[in-house]
Amino acid sequence: MAGMTIGLVLDLFGTFFFAMSGCILAARRKFDIIGSLFLGTLAGLGGGIIRDLILGTVPSAFNNPLYFVPPVLAALLVFFLFHSVQRFQRPLLIFDAGGLALFCITGTVKALSLGMNPVASALLGLTTAVGGGVLRDVVANRVPQLFNPDDLYAVPAMLGSALVVVLWSAGIYGTAAAMCVAAVVFGLRVVSLHYG
Amino acid sequence: MAGMTIGLVLDLFGTFFFAMSGCILAARRKFDIIGSLFLGTLAGLGGGIIRDLILGTVPSAFNNPLYFVPPVLAALLVFFLFHSVQRFQRPLLIFDAGGLALFCITGTVKALSLGMNPVASALLGLTTAVGGGVLRDVVANRVPQLFNPDDLYAVPAMLGSALVVVLWSAGIYGTAAAMCVAAVVFGLRVVSLHYG
Amino acid sequence: MAGMTIGLVLDLFGTFFFAMSGCILAARRKFDIIGSLFLGTLAGLGGGIIRDLILGTVPSAFNNPLYFVPPVLAALLVFFLFHSVQRFQRPLLIFDAGGLALFCITGTVKALSLGMNPVASALLGLTTAVGGGVLRDVVANRVPQLFNPDDLYAVPAMLGSALVVVLWSAGIYGTAAAMCVAAVVFGLRVVSLHYG
Predict the structure, then answer these.
(1) I need a surface site. Which of A55, A147, B57, B112 has the fewest CB within 10 A?
(2) Contacts with A144 from chain C: Cβ below 8 Å
(3) Domain range enclosing C6
(4) Based on the structure, what is the number of domains in chain A?
């Protein structure tokens, strides 16, 4: 139960981070607030919906209306705070990194707890982590950040998903372990951005 | 049973309207008739397929071959009637508005009748309504109409989905109510186009 | 059992062919090897995943880790062999044709064997065949090859799917029949490329 709660909290934060990245991209593209809300929702919920469709369960976002709170918050925040800011590339990437770090964990854990094999679980965690960002970029008609050869986008998430599988199999996955993995993935991603 | 029939009829008309928008876009892009058939099919059936995947049911289009009739009709109509027309923007948007008006209703009703909660049902109705158009635009490599800041694309469909939830909960949803909601959504969308 | 094995072998070869097309496109776009691996995986597995989601089964790729071997192979091959090649258009299209020829068969057969009606089965076979290529092109931000009016992309796959339905219904579908259909589809596609 406590594990579920932690999972939900991490998932909602991940949703918020990706939603921020979507809303910031929408602001750069001069979309209005409704467009921002859509792109943020797609970025925040898209990866988890793909994961849940593959797992054959009703997507969590449609089971629990709480999941729509982070995108609404993100759209309002970006609309009121970032509206006149000119250079959004850095915050977009930082929020995206936060979502990546959390979703590679929650996606892998959900797959493992539904009984998928370790390889498929790690791949589903990775799909969750990169799915929302790819949908965001494809719908906004740009080549996904994932394919930018100048920085390591997917490698930290691959490592994170693999780490979760190992920790879970060893029976030592828990809140503390999740936090450590998230910090490692986020750190690697930010370092990669810095040197990219 | 009559409700099912009305639902099917509205769904087929919505499919036809979105399919027309897809085929017209294909003609503007100089796709051949097969490309037109594909883009029309994607626009007409895409939103409903996404809805049904999330609902965990076999997509209606694959249960009932009737659903492939409207895209075929649309491809033939556009091929023979609109082939030499130069300016397609207005008819594309009008057909798109018709599909939007019908799909926000049929999508919401399908979700409600499968027992989804009201919030999720309205959001699935909206997803049905905007899904086909977004897929159409993304696959034709343009920024979705949904993100055009100069007109209100999603707001009429949001309103329509919400209205259906209210009417359904109040127990007064029926053919007449559906027609009224469709007229309101279509009217708002066309007014928005006029002033956009 | 032997049928299953043949199906699996054809599916893995189809996956490899489409994965090659994705990795070659990635090389043309100067993506790094991780981007190449992603685009190859999407091209190779995307069509089958869409098919399986519509069929309501866990996607084969997530049931059987073998499916990830062809994309890894393709990414390595393209990275080490094709890295410095300047003109990739022709091999990309040839591999794509190979995937198309195999997937219209395996997709249709899977749908038939899960009890879908003949029309839906042929359409799902077609979806499997064109799905991966469309996802590949959309994610790499170009108009899908499917819509190129200068060559017949989908027609050979439509014919192949229809042939499989006929052979299956007549009770004479088997390895030899599958090979003949694949040869016909591949041949038609290559002839179309030659005269396109």
Answers:
(1) B57
(2) 139
(3) 2-195
(4) 1
